[in-house]
Amino acid sequence: MRSRPHVWAKSVVRMGRRPDHGAMLDYSPELSGLAGNPGLPQQLLDHFTAVADEDLCEDLAQRDGLTLQQVRNLAVRCSPWTLRGLIADGVVPLQDIPQDDPWLVVAATGRTDVPASWIRDLARGTDVSLRIELVEFGGHSEELLYLLSGDSHTGVVCVVAEHAGLPADLARRLAAHPDLRIRDALARNAATPPDVLAVLLADGGSPPVERCNRCEDLAEGCGDHEAGVQRLRMAALQNPSTPAAGLDRFPGSPDIWVRATLAGRPELSDDAYRRLAADRDSRVRREAAANPAVGEALIRALAADPDRSVRNAVAANPALPMSLLKQLAPAVRMGTELWPRIAAASPEELHDLAHSTTAQLRALVATHPDLPIDLVTTLAGDPDPSVAKRLARHPALTPHRLHALAERHGPTLYPALARNPNCPPDLLHAMAVTTATTHDTLVEMAKHRSVTPETLQLCLDHPYERVRAAAAGNPSLPVPAMARLLGVAMVP
């Protein structure tokens, strides 16, 4: 669902029973974490849904597999927005949706079981905001899109024009709409046919637009829509569905954002790329530097760019030549993410880099998720902390090697070790009780699948809210601990 402001109906929908507001559980980080815990037993979930406050109901509503009674429990306490989500997801039966609240009815219109009469009645309604939401929820119906494409309100037609399921013939009809805002919405829609986008890119479409958003502020209209047409053409330029034909006219545009957008597109001519790679603005050159379509010669030229951000963008280019990668690695900020060129490296290239005398190159290889086991073994013994930091998350590392890495490099490696799925329970606990462990690392430990109840209790008692929430959300949390969080005295 897309968030759109509107006035909510005042009434609270009650399905099955009235809420006992005196029995509510107030929101806390621990209860919020527990609401998403997949290991929560059904008996406790029944109780939780019956006593949760509005904020906790929102968390509980995100769960899969809620029973009808649990849904009804939530419906009497949750916010209208949360209830709309439950309705849209199909877990609220049609007979439980009150027909006198159109804001709840419209949430059901994306479902396959909704009667067509509901959609038609809403489409004939006088509330513009409701008709807009009808397109967003029920827009899978082409009949509805055609019906509301002729709506008297521009905002409704705009939402139709930007709908992902827009039929091609309807897009072609709307491309001739006299209002610039409709054409602009089409230009931004990846579902708009390429031939329509090409026309909008060329001159804004024909016949010429007759009104735009500024016209409504002036008694006689604004008389000049040129600025709006240029924005429309920019939208078409950014649309990935716009065909290459006609793009080469824009590299000389005075608009920096036009040139930067072009520099990232994959289908320009060699001459256009040369112009963009030599652009006076580093933002344009940066986009070109990350684009594999510019070719090796320009990638090498941009690697020597005086602007550091451009050189860093070259490092992220999937078409980066390996010889150039070796030159760049010591001079750019690597981060902890996998470089695209490393992801595409051959086994021979990975072996060469893993045995390099340059630590930055070995660190780059260590981020590869599918390293051959012999290279994992080689890099696990690397003395450089930057290599260890990037290797520590690797799923092929054994508990023994993870212990060795922790002993060799200490707390600086704890964040990465806590994210390794093979991190053993004893190492997790040892890191958790160390004062040098950061709060963010404790959060990762509290979420770990191998964490022990003892470590989870340590995290539940922690003063940092996110640590407590993560521990409460761990399916390994013992059921008695879950019951205590809910204030249940005992579980049979």
Our count of helices gives 32
Mean pLDDT: 89
Structural class based on helices, strands and sheet pairing: mainly alpha
The proportion of strand residues reads under 5%
- In total, how many beta strands? 0
When the domains are counted, the total is 4
Distance between the termini: 40 Å
Silhouette:
flat
Low-confidence parts lasting 5 or more residues at pLDDT below 50?
1-21
Radius of gyration: 29 Å
Largest sheet: none
Helix percent band: 40-55%
Brief synopsis:
With 492 residues, this protein is mainly α. The chain is built from 32 helices and no strands.
Describe what this molecule looks like in 3D.
The protein is built from 32 helices and no strands. It is 52% helix and 0% strand. Mean pLDDT is 89; it is low at 1-21. Helix 30 runs antiparallel to helix 31 (465-472). The protein is an all-alpha fold and 492 residues long. The longest helix is centred in the middle third of the chain and has 13 residues, at 226-238. It has four domains: 1-148, no CATH class; 262-333, no CATH class; 334-380, no CATH class; 392-492, no CATH class.
List keywords for this structure.
492 residues, mainly alpha, 4 domains, 32 helices, 52% helix, flat
Topology of helices and strands:
Elements: H1 29-35, H2 42-51, H3 54-60, H4 68-75, H5 80-88, H6 102-107, H7 116-123, H8 128-138, H9 142-148, H10 154-161, H11 168-174, H12 180-187, H13 194-203, H14 226-238, H15 256-263, H16 270-277, H17 282-289, H18 296-302, H19 308-315, H20 322-328, H21 340-343, H22 347-354, H23 359-366, H24 373-380, H25 385-391, H26 399-409, H27 414-418, H28 425-432, H29 439-447, H30 453-460, H31 465-472, H32 479-486
Helix pairs in contact: 1-3, 1-31, 2-4, 8-10, 10-12, 12-14, 13-14, 15-17, 17-19, 23-25, 29-31, 30-31
